[in-house]
Amino acid sequence: MTHHQVASTQAGTAEKILTGDRPTGQLHLGHFVGSLQQRVQLQHRYEQTILVADLQGLTDNGHRPNKVAENILNVVADYLAVGIDPLKTRICLQSAIPALAELAMYYANLVTVARLQRNPTVKNEIAGKGFGASIPAGFLTYPISQAADITAFKATLVPVGDDQLPMLEQTNEIVRKLNQIAGQEILVECKPLLSNMPRLPAPDGKQKMSKSMGNCIYLDSDDRAIARAVKSMYTDPNHLRVDDPGCVAGNVVFTYLDAFHPDPGYVAELKQQYEAGGLADGTTKQILTDCLQTLIAPIRAQRAVYMADKAQLVAILKQGSEQAQEEADAVLTQIKRAFGLKLF
Ligand code: ATP
Ligand code: MG
Predict the structure, then answer these.
(1) How far is the CA of 286 from the centre of ligand 2 (A)?
(2) What CATH number does the domain located at 16-201+309-338 have?
(3) pTM over 0.85, yes/no
(4) Which of 87, 187, 247, 337 suits a disulfide with 175, CB 3.0-4.6 Å?
(5) How far, CA to CA in Å, does 170 sit from each of 116, 118, 132, 182?
(6) Ligand 1 centre distance from Cα of residue 198 (Å)
(7) pLDDT digit string, tens, across residues 262-315
(8) Does 199 contact ligand 1 (Cβ within 6 A)?
(9) pLDDT digit string (tens) for 9-30?
(10) Domain 223-302 indexed as CATH 3.40.50.2300
(11) Structural domain boundaries of the chain?
């Protein structure tokens, strides 16, 4: 039985999944807990499309497009290395699916500039990237392009980190406007699927881990890099002596132990001990280092195998993109009809 059949036999649960990543760097532990792990599970049950969003990557990299081009295959290798199976999940490339860019041009007429400027994630990113008065138009409008990506596959469920919630809201607004214009429900609204760690912080505990901030532990980081990152992690600044009671809340080491340690009971014991006093930060950091090194080692090894055959990675993307273009084209035709622009 294929996964398509499984999905359709569960009445009312035949979700369609769309997610993606900007190829602006290799994927990191934030992606792993925020979305990749869920995608690996979901691919067995539902029809899943994963988009390598290279056009979206260009929206803040127009002056250095190489950064995007160079990372496309890196991201595909990351997918395969964590267990995303191209026979179960359609992996495709945004720029190879022209219907997506076309759809975005239609949707852009349904969204005001003021609405785009209110998007809290975009606001935050504009401030963080230091664009000043020179915000690329493509950057301000990327939520529209994301709406095109989601609706082109009629996705109902989008596994994302919490920074993406405003994008899904924006998408659903466009969906409602379009259905109103069409006079019937041609598009469906989508729901976010948040993991239990929807925003993994960077080691400093302030920012989210993000490719653009250079604060990442990557899925192929070596043991030394992992140890270094853990050593730099923010803990409780008032926990000066080992015997002092320590604070778990906001302590990045414990945030990561919660996210990555396979034994939650053990982590609960560590927390108790830390709060009572008598557990050193050096000890918790060593436990976390071991845990992350164990997690990443097999992913790193798999990734190296996939990166050694780039032609295979390209073939996977090409095949997925061709299938995706067919599906997106059908939606584009519906949208053109809704606007009364499909004369032939
Ligand atoms: P960039 O800095 O280029 O924007 P990024 O690290 O934010 O890169 P994206 O490609 O923008 O990664 O995000 C892909 C997906 O991963 C999104 O669903 C996003 O919510 C999720 N994600 C990214 N960073 C984290 C994080 N630190 N914790 C949880 N989820 C995350
Ligand atoms: Mg991002």
Answers:
(1) 29
(2) 3.40.50.620
(3) yes
(4) 187
(5) 9, 11, 24, 18
(6) 10
(7) 999 999 999 999 999 999 999 999 999 999 999 999 999 999 999 999 999 999
(8) yes
(9) 344 568 999 999 999 999 999 9
(10) no
(11) 16-201+309-338, 223-302
